[in-house]
Amino acid sequence: MNRFYCPDIAQTLKLTEDESNHCVRVLRLGEGDMIQVVDGKGKCFDCQITFASNKGCSVDIVNVREERPSWGHRIAIAVAPTKHTDRTEWLLEKCTEIGVDRIIPLSCHNGERKQFRSERLRKIMVSAMKQSLKATLPQLDELTPIAGFLNEPNNGQRFIAYCDPTLPCDERVDLAKAYTPGSDVTILIGPEGDFSQEEINQAKAVGYIPVTFGASRLRTETAAMVACSIIHAIDASASK
Fold first, then answer.
1. What is the CB neighbour count within 10 angstroms for residue 163?
2. Residues 104, 161, 175, 144: what is their CA dihedral angle, to the nearest 10 degrees?
3. Please, are residues 190 and 211 in contact by the beta-carbon 8 Å criterion?
4. How far apart are CA 63 and CA 65, in angstroms?
5. Are 45 and 113 found together in one domain?
6. Domain count, the chain
7. pLDDT tens per residue across span 157-171
């Protein structure tokens, strides 16, 4: 069954303009056809189309069910946007597919980007949410100075990944060994130029634990996706 996104479907019983166009003009669905609509907050609605034209698409809700994230705890990835926008787009798409609750684009001293096109990126995340059959859309923050983010209250596990060769390697632990399954977790991933030593020290001072993902040096977007995958793999193994 085709899946669409409309955050206020329960109140309006109408698809948004973009989703209506996709439903009626692209997929050529019409009155009487069944579709699924998710609200991005964990609910999935089985709907029957009651009106379909170039002007819009209306539905009746036949059934409602909760489709909350299967991992049951908060996963946050705080990562500096890459110089090339397509790599950031790829990262957000893949993390949404894998499963994450919040993505915080960080403004760092060595960061490559000073602007962030959040509207376009949210559309990519919506598409990834629907494609991966999820009903919850991750929270995407605006570009956030790292100092401000580090001052946020955080009671979960906190990790930071960096590559600076001048800092002691023996203080970095394997994320797969440091993470406690089922815990709320935040992982900081630095920019292509890495975190500055001051940023690393600030993060460690508020409880972030330095971690590694293995022997290979990874691109920013790869590191963020690997971190997300490691969390899910450990959770899955612990639940068996």
1. 14
2. -10
3. no
4. 7
5. no
6. 2
7. 999 998 876 766 678
